[in-house]
């Protein structure tokens, strides 16, 4: 998760007021924004022929951390399948890191560099369908993250006893900030070996399972971690410190899930208590709503980090200081948000949305953040009831800016508005309200996880799936809330002597069923369109009609 928006929204909550009917962004404005992007952004964000020509199958990343020098050196082996004939391909490595050599069948390959991309030329055509491999050797001083996880790079800190404490975080900016890879969200390896060498006495905790620890006899120790599942690049992590371990297990939908916890010695007692009260309730809630934990083979882990947190697959980074809420703060302001540890719940929610299902383009980061932010409401519901979940969800609205669309700009590695967190969560609760069948909604959420199991997905795949399975016309709803910054406004007015309603919205042919009641009675659906139509509810007047504002986040106008 990228916390910059979260932090911003934490500070702006006091300034927040309901904002409706702001002008929608025009196509001309969008084009203007687009033109600001550089060729470097395109190299980073677009799927050029030099990237789609190979499908990455496996990495073996082998890196030594020289903590005194704040330097790294090592190699990454790329195993791939050619998807077409080619002689040249692109991989990515930040320009401040050296490419020492690229080795193919024992020989070095020529390469060129532009911005953060590297172009390698092979001595002969790599033919479509063939499986092949090359290894990149690299070294240098990686970008130091000053405000991880909000910026990205490597964090070099010391623990309270003065021992080194090092971690990586690179969501958004990209994993090529510290290791060479095909840095595009659409392509994930099927499995990966992560070998991290650290000064003797320290430990590395990475993703997957620890296979081997080797004393390298040069005052370094190497830790080999194997990830048995597809993993996106930004989830690959090194966490280096004077860690101690404790463990537990959970009998879940797929049997016994191992739980491994790595914390600093000084944190051990606090961690035991905080993890025991949060992790199993989280797993119970999310397996119920989303299906089995997606990475039983790799286990579930929490690793204490010198930054706040990140959804590092099967090795969730944890830095919430063993407090409930978000660093002790209830993001919803309702009282429901400080009964549980925000970072454990939110970051673990990403195992289902972000890690199991990964958006193909950073513009669709809402697939990670909207569903995960929504998962918080379901966690609250699972523990304290549906009403509590709805109240928590409504409380998140104070963090919404309505400043720009939630969907970002495609092909330039540009995410959309931070509204992807709270507004996305609110949208999903509204969609559930419209579907009006909680078991169907649960099956849709579980179906997303099983249908797109361990895959990268697009906007259309996710939205069309929900639309089809719901049996409702939800495309305009997703369109309005994800592509436009403005809320749809429900207008009531008397026309021809009768109460009528319509939507004012940007999305083409916008329509959305909405729950209304008369004189505090039972809520019933009306289905306004953008044309005024009569409200077919007995005795409805402009004065006595009321919208279900617990579940609907819309503008309201009575003329
Ligand atoms: Zn997140």
Largest sheet: 8 strands, mixed
Q: Give the mean pLDDT.
A: 94
Distance from N terminus to C terminus (CA atoms, Å) equals: 42 Å
The side-by-side strand order for the widest beta sheet comes to 5-4-8-2-1-11-14-13
What does this protein structure show overall?
By secondary structure, the protein is of the alpha+beta class. Helix content is 25%, strand content 31%. The chain has an 8-stranded mixed β-sheet with strand order 5-4-8-2-1-11-14-13. Strands 16-17-18-20-19 form a 5-stranded mixed β-sheet, covered by helices on one side. Strand 4 (98-104) and strand 5 (107-108) form a beta hairpin. Helix 10 runs antiparallel to helix 11. The longest helix has 23 residues, at 268-290. The model is unreliable at 1-5 and 7-32 (pLDDT under 50). The protein binds zinc ion. Residues 1, 346, 350, 369, 372 line the site of zinc ion.
Give the tags.
alpha+beta; 5-stranded mixed sheet; binds zinc ion; 559 residues; disordered N terminus; 8-stranded mixed sheet; 12 helices
Give a short overview.
By secondary structure, the protein is an alpha+beta fold.
